[in-house]
Amino acid sequence: MNKTVVISGGSQGIGKSLVKIFLNHDFKVYTCARNQMGLDKLSKEMNHQNLFTFQADVSKKEDVLHFANWILSKEQSVDVLINNAGFFEPGQIQSEEDGVLERQIETNLYSAYHLTRALLPKIQTFGHIFNMCSVASITPYVNGGSYCISKFALLGFSKVLREELKDRKIKVTSVLPGATLTSSWEGVNLPKERFIDPDDIANTIYSNYNLSPSAVVEEILIRPMEGDV
Question: What does pTM read for this prediction?
Answer without folding.
Answer: 0.96
